[in-house]
Amino acid sequence: MTHITVEKRTTHTGLIIAELTFVDESILQIREYIDVELSVERLMYAYQYMNASKELIFRYDNTGHHKKLNLSTYPHHKHNRSEENVIAAFPAELSSVLGEIEKIIL
């Protein structure tokens, strides 16, 4: 099952929210806040992947709430299996997140 919502915020910005359910009932929640004034620019993103019981498997995001961890990729980071297990991660792209999920499912 797939749900997609697009919310226009200003003349040039909007929020894309989506939820994808995979064959094993795992779920990927997607949030991207984008600016399209000159080109498509992601201002904020979060890709949260959970198992069928809605337990976190991973989440990539660029929320600036982990500054004190001194991550080399700040504000980009990954939560691995828990909210507290935060590691450095380069900016995530949806295609690479889907590839990571494919490896987990298969």
Give a description of the structure.
The chain is mainly beta. The chain has one domain. Helix content is 11%, strand content 45%. It contains 1 helix and 7 strands, in the order E-E-E-E-E-E-E-H. It has one helix at 94-105; strands spanning 2-8, 13-21, 27-35, 41-50, 56-61, 77-80, 86-88. A 7-stranded antiparallel sheet has the order 1-2-3-4-5-6-7, with helices on one face. The radius of gyration is 14 Å and the shape is globular.
Could you provide a short overview of the structure?
By secondary structure, this protein is mainly β.
Based on the model shown, name its key terms:
mainly beta; 7 strands
Secondary-structure map with pairings?
Blueprint: E1 2-8, E2 13-21, E3 27-35, E4 41-50, E5 56-61, E6 77-80, E7 86-88, H1 94-105
Antiparallel strand pairs: 1-2, 2-3, 3-4, 4-5, 5-6, 6-7
